[in-house]
Design brief:
The complex is a heterodimer of chains A (287) and B (138). Chain A has helices spanning 2-58, 92-109, 121-127, 147-162, 212-286, and strands spanning 76-82, 113-119, 133-138, 168-176, 182-190, 207-209. Chain A has a five-stranded mixed sheet, with helices on both faces. Chain A is of the alpha/beta class. Chain A is elongated. Chain B folds into two domains: 4-84, ATP Synthase, domain 1 (Sandwich), CATH 2.60.15.10; 89-137. In chain B, strands 1, 2, 3, 4, 5, 6, 7 and 8 form an eight-stranded mixed sheet that branches. The longest helix of chain B is centred in the last third of the chain and has 25 residues, at 113-137. Classes of the chains: A alpha/beta (287), B alpha+beta (138). Chain A binds chain B through residues 38, 41-42, 44-45, 48-49, 51-52, 55-56, 59, 147, 204-210, 214-216, 218-219, 222, 225-226, 229, and chain B through 7, 9-14, 27-29, 39-44, 66-67, 69, 71, 76, 78, 80-81.
Chain lengths: 287, 138
């Protein structure tokens, strides 16, 4: 019964793997709930600040901030890529990277260079050898990233924009549609794309304190940070739900494999018994 | 009496939302008192206390800096990390102040003096507010 023993070991090892994947599924499910709550909790801020930016584009300010101006010709653009720190979350990161690489190739075909900033270990290791210039890296954010963690990374990219190194900055992340669906999304950060606001046609402007430049800079930087933060928390919610789904299907597949193997094992056992009986019977007949 | 809608939000949560008679916010140039029909205004906030005066009483919220946007009928306050004043951890504030002071003492070692001063101002504002609230309670 050598074959039988081998199959038994295989079944045992698949069952062990199944235990791990089902544990990971449950962990991801509970983390997913928290990640979604965090995502929803951070929405008011980004919604409100987008609204203010909308108002701002209708205000007739004498001072025009560089983030609001359309830059000249695109020569070099920056992309902040948000990914997860850990794997085993299905095609989440790969889908995002693949759609990004396609866009990057399109840009390069037009003669536009691409600088990137990676958030999360997966993006960092994926783009390390891509030949693109990585300007900043941020990893080990954990499940509950703090707003502060982002500031340095975003600043590096905004400084590059201020100095004219890059003429456009975008953020790429997985948008959370629902538990089953995550969409790779690229959103332009600067120059700022105005949202729609109605009923703002009359001539008006804000009073700025301490002055227009300082107030606008503070607001616009927070707006951009808020967009990146929103992308980050959405990506984490995506990661957890994607991992939950991936682990669920892994657990199901392991169950199927165990079932198939048990069938094979039982057949082999049956065959061995039949053979033994027929041997005994034919032996007895010979005597 | 007419009212003004007030939203106080931070990156991680919506802290306050509702109608108010007036709002006071610690703008960088001095405290702002905002009543309904205020002219449109955009200002930087420094660490301090936001007071929202409603029919029911005064709601007090600590902000560690941020932005205020005023439209005639709505005030939006973006707090950098606004935590309810009651939740303020005095020990942490003291510690932060100590750290900031230590950093100031060796500011020659490449520390950013501006950042440190900002941290100190924030810690001071938190302490001030705590002692004020403690005074009310006793």
């Amino acid at each position: 019964m050598a074959a039988g023993k081998e199959i038994r070991t295989q079944i045992a090892s698949i069952k062990n793997t199944q235990k791990i994947t089902s544990a990971m599924e449950m962990v991801a499910a509970s983390k997913m709930k928290k990640a979604q709550d965090r995502m929803l909790a951070s929405r008011p801020y980004s919604e409100k600040i987008s609204k203010v930016i909308g108002h701002l584009t209708y205000a007739h300010s004498e001072f025009e901030h560089s983030y609001m101006k359309e830059g000249g010709d695109l020569k070099r653009i920056g992309i902040i890529i948000i990914s997860s720190d850990r794997g085993l979350c299905g095609g989440l990161n790969t889908n995002l990277f693949r759609s990004l690489l396609k866009q990057v190739t399109d840009y390069q075909a037009k003669g536009i260079e691409v600088d990137i900033c990676t958030i999360g270990k997966k993006a960092t290791s994926f783009f390390k050898n891509s030949g693109l210039n990585i300007k900043s890296v941020l990893t080990d954010l954990g499940d509950a990233p703090h707003f502060d963690d982002l500031l340095g990374t975003v600043k590096v990219m905004l400084d590059a924009y201020d100095e004219g190194e890059i003429q456009q900055l975008s953020v790429a992340y997985n948008k959370f549609e629902n538990t089953m669906t995550q969409t790779p999304t690229v959103t332009q950060l600067v120059p700022i794309v105005a949202g729609e606001v109605d009923d703002m046609d009359h001539y008006w402007d804000y009073i700025y304190e301490p002055d227009a430049e300082e107030a606008l800079s503070a607001l616009l930087v927070r707006y951009i940070e808020a967009l990146v933060y929103q992308g980050l928390v959405e990506n984490i919610a995506c990661e957890q739900s994607s991992r939950m789904i991936a682990m669920k299907s892994a657990t199901d597949n392991a169950g199927d494999m165990v079932k198939d193997l048990e069938l094979v094992y039982n057949k082999a056992r049956q065959a061995a018994i039949t053979q033994e009986i027929s041997e005994i019977v034919s032996g007895a007949a010979a005597v | 009496m007419s009212t003004i809608h007030v939203n106080v939000v931070s990156a991680t949560e919506s802290i306050y939302s509702g109608e108010a008679n007036c709002v006071f916010a610690p703008a960088s140039t001095g405290e702002l008192g905002i009543y309904p029909k205020h002219v449109a205004l955009l200002s930087v906030l420094k660490p301090g206390e936001v007071r929202v005066e409603t029919e029911k009483g005064i709601e007090s919220i600590y902000v560690s800096g941020g932005i205020v946007e005023v439209q005639p009928d709505v005030v939006t306050i973006f707090s950098d990390t606004a935590i309810r004043a009651n939740d303020l951890d005095e020990y942490k504030a003291l510690e932060a102040k100590q750290r900031a002071e230590e950093a100031m003492a060796n500011s020659d070692n490449g520390h950013d003096v501006g950042t440190t001063q900002a941290a100190l101002a924030e810690a001071m504002a938190q302490l001030q507010m705590l002692s004020k609230m403690r005074g009310k309670k006793l």
